[in-house]
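Please go through the sequence line and token line underneath and see whether the fold suits the sequence. See right below:
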Amino acid sequence: MGKLIMWNLMTLDGMFEGPQPWDLEWHEYAWGDELKRFSLEQGREAEALLFGRRTYEGMAAHWTTATGETADFMNAVPKYVFSRTLEHADWANSTLVKEDAGKAVARLKEQPGKDLFVFGSADLSATLIRHGLFDEYRIGLVPVTLGEGSPLFKPDSERLRLQLLQSRPLGDRCLLLRYQPAAVAAAAR
């Protein structure tokens, strides 16, 4: 059984996107050779990607027309999209899941294989946090502030206690922070 890992870029003021959906221009500020290398390295750990509807639709729109090594990975990797409103998931290797995300992800975690990753998908992540399903949080902290936007951790989220596993610069515009829930760390001792 692999781990469930959240991977997101986040601004210093806690946003994962700006005030409009897909307001991600600040990602370009962070992007560089080290972040690209890390992203591809992380992809080799992935059994599948998990998305909420909005992130899935945005990712599909972008990656189905993109080219290169990252696009090849994104188009080939198995994907699960959690939505009660989508009728179908047409992006290559996608499975639509309409049932309760917490229960479905718990079952996915029980299957043998590599790690499962949630990219973006703050609403799905909030659900999975409530169910205590994340084994690791990987945050790429980007030294910009937006002043407004969508926070990665929702204001009504439950309190999280995390233990730092690693901090490492990915170039001079992104700091990788890896955390695990404190309860997981205590159980491993």
The chain has one domain: 4-169+181-188. The domain at 4-169+181-188 is CATH 3.40.430.10 (Dihydrofolate Reductase, subunit A). Residues 21 and 28 are 16 Å apart (CA to CA). The two ends are 20 Å apart (CA to CA).
